[in-house]
Design brief:
By secondary structure, the chain is of the alpha/beta class. It has helices at residues 16-27, 39-51, 66-80, 107-132, 160-180, 201-204, 207-216, 226-237, and strands at residues 8-12, 31-36, 55-60, 85-88, 139-146, 185-192, 248-251. A seven-stranded parallel beta sheet has the order 3-2-1-4-5-6-7, with helices on both faces. Helix 2 links the parallel strand 2 (31-36) and strand 3 (55-60). The protein is globular, with a radius of gyration of 18 Å.
C-alpha cells in the first residue's frame, strides 16, 4: 500500500522543496493541494501531477495575508473534505530587504524577513489546525526550517533575521506538538541544509559556496536535492511516524556535524 493513501496533504509553495514534496506525496497516494503566491506555478505543478495519474488541486494565495490564507485552506476543504497533513515550505531569503549582519541590518530587513517566512508558517498551520481539530484522526504538520538556526556559517551565510525566524519555527513546532498531542495532531520540523532550489541560485552559482558545500555537506558532496527533504517529510506525514512529534530532524548532508565553518 502507498504510504499516504487516502490522505489529503496541503503543500505551501510550488517550486523547489515544495514541488518535490507535492510530486512525492501524490505518487504515494495522497490528494495534494498546492498553495502558492504564483497561480501559474501552482497550476503547472498540479497539472503535472494529474498527468502522471495522481490527484492534485491548487489555490493561488499570498500566505502573508490572513484573508488569503484562510480562503486557500478553506478551498482545500471544499475540494477534498478534510486535511491530514501540512508540508509548510513557503518562505524565502530576506537579503533583498537588507537581511544580513544585525549591526548593519535596517528595520525593514528584520520585519520583512519575518513576514516572508514567519507569517506563512503561522497562518497556514493555524488554519490547518482548525480543520484537524474537528477530525477524530487528527493529522501531521511538517515545518521546513533551516540548519542555520542552530549551526551558523557566518563567513558565507550571515543572515541573522532568516536564522532567527527559522529558529522561531523550531520553537513553534515544539510548543504546538505539546499542545495538540492529545488531539492526535503531530508537529515536527525539518532543519534543511543547503538545497539546490530556486532560492539557492546565488549559492549554486558561487564557486566559493559550492566548494564550502562540498566540505560542509559531505554526504551530499555539495548541495542537497529537494527530494532529500521531501523524503523526510513523507515519513513524518505518514503513519510510519505516528509516534513521533515535537522533533526537529536535520536533513543537512552532515552540515551540523562537520568540522569548522569554512
Amino acid at each position: 500500500m502507498k504510504r499516504l493513501s487516502e490522505k489529503v496533504i496541503v503543500v505551501t509553495g510550488a517550486s523547489g522543496i515544495a514541488a518535490a514534496g507535492a510530486r512525492l506525496f501524490a505518487a504515494e497516494g495522497a490528494s495534494v493541494f498546492v498553495i502558492s503566491r504564483t497561480g501559474s506555478k501552482c497550476e503547472a505543478l498540479a497539472d503535472e501531477i494529474a498527468d502522471a495519474g495522481d490527484v492534485a488541486s491548487w489555490a493561488s494565495a499570498d500566505l502573508t495575508d490572513e484573508a488569503s490564507a484562510i480562503e486557500a485552506v478553506q478551498a482545500c476543504v471544499e475540494r477534498f473534505g478534510r486535511i491530514d497533513g501540512l508540508f509548510a515550505v513557503a518562505g524565502g531569503s530576506g537579503r533583498r530587504f537588507g537581511d544580513g549582519p544585525l549591526d548593519l541590518m535596517p528595520l525593514e530587513g528584520w520585519v520583512k524577513t519575518f513576514e516572508l517566512n514567519g507569517l506563512p508558517a503561522f497562518l497556514s498551520t493555524r488554519e490547518v489546525l482548525k480543520v484537524m481539530l474537528q477530525q477524530e484522526t487528527g493529522g501531521s504538520v511538517a515545518l521546513v526550517t533551516s540548519v542555520l538556526a542552530s549551526s551558523p556559517a557566518p563567513s558565507l551565510f550571515e543572515t541573522h533575521a532568516y536564522a532567527a525566524v527559522k529558529g522561531a519555527e523550531v520553537a513553534l513546532a515544539t510548543s504546538l506538538a505539546s499542545s495538540y498531542a492529545s488531539s492526535a495532531i503531530r508537529v515536527n520540523a525539518i532543519a534543511s541544509g543547503l538545497v539546490d532550489t530556486p532560492m539557492a541560485q546565488r549559492a549554486a552559482s558561487d564557486p566559493e559556496i559550492v566548494a564550502f558545500a562540498k566540505r560542509k555537506q559531505p554526504l551530499a558532496k555539495g548541495l542537497l536535492a529537494p527530494t532529500d527533504i521531501a523524503e523526510t517529510a513523507l515519513f513524518l506525514l505518514s503513519d510510519s511516524a505516528k509516534m513521533i512529534t515535537g522533533q526537529t530532524i536535520a536533513v543537512d548532508g552532515g552540515w551540523s556535524v562537520s568540522e569548522g565553518s569554512q
